[in-house]
Write a structure and sequence with these properties.
The structure is a homotetramer of 116-residue chains. With 116 residues, chain A is mainly α. Chain A has helices spanning 4-18, 26-42, 53-56, 59-83, 87-101, 104-107, 112-115.
């Protein structure tokens, strides 16, 4: 369980205590999510073939991954909080929409989606 | 509350039913998070000055934002699930680390962080 | 004049001398361009309103900007070289296509493009 | 040869004819480069292993790649033009700096750079 209300409240206090709310515009938060996403991607920048999941188990890689995922999560919680969006509901809707968009019987064993 | 275990399980079934697990390498999921983050950013690409939060309240912008935030959330939940990372704990650790890194009394009313 | 043939040849030698050609797959180079683009963006991450061009004239900002632009340019020259794409011709075509897509008389003084 | 002065002049006229110069702030152009970079990356989003260069030779992939590379090139030329940066010189400096940073004898046949 991710207690996003509690995390959002912590981020709200954090920003208020530093008077940083003024920096948290939609464009700046969206920018920040992109930057953190690129930092996650950088961990896998030069992999030949593909690094597999057991490589992520390496403690030094794992702790970097953990940190970048946390940064991204915190920024999307902050973005959702500032804009009054219910993340849980948005995620559930999206899963339901994807089930309609990609019917299992049609896409099973196929990478068609990935070529479109 | 974001029930990330339930969402992770739904994503697991979703991938299994379509035999898409093979595509969900660390690099591909990190790539996907960056792509979705850029789609969120695109909503604010050309804003002069900064679009403010009341503009995000516009229903057509809001529903795009909601969708992109959901995509990002689902991909980080999937990434965390594949790598056995506890997102809730990672987020709490990160907030604690930030409190140490940016002491309120030193950064209050200042944008020094942003210039460093 | 950007002598992209000369720069491409220099990058080719650089990779050959280090046996790095094996890392320069399409996906890895595309990943690298995204990462460098995010580093450029990071310079403007927290700007309130928008930093204007005179702020980029600040020597420390300017030298960071210069470095990130160079990184991006070198990676797209490398990508074009590996895939046999003529960048000059591609850029000219794109300008011509944009002139058709956004007729001046229809878009003049309007930010419609930016709202679409 | 990429005639960046000619391309910069074309972009200048293009923006002037549409009164779009006002949108071309440093942050907006940096944002645009990131978005175009993500569109290039999207072409390779789901590749298992790595797509190789002969796959980029496929006409439909190639034409998308060409378009995204052109977009990125045009935006960095525009960014350099607005900030008075000499791209050719920046690229030459960067190659020289990389030669110092990664001595061939130390990095040859090694992917150490990529693990750092």
């Amino acid at each position: 369980m991710i207690d996003n209300q509690k995390l959002a409240a912590a981020l709200r206090s954090f920003a208020a205590e530093r008077a940083w709310d003024q920096f948290h515009t939609p464009k700046n938060l969206a920018t920040s999510i992109s930057i953190e996403a690129a930092e996650l991607l950088e961990i896998f920048q030069w992999s030949r073939g593909q690094q597999e999941w057991d490589e992520v188990a390496d403690p030094s890689i794992r702790s970097k991954v953990e940190e970048e995922l946390a940064d991204i999560l915190l920024y999307i919680i902050r973005f959702a909080d500032k804009s009054g969006i219910d993340l849980e509901r948005a995620a559930e809707r999206k899963i339901a929409a994807n089930a309609v968009k990609y019917p299992a019987e049609r896409f099973r064993g196929s990478d068609r989606k990935y070529d479109e």
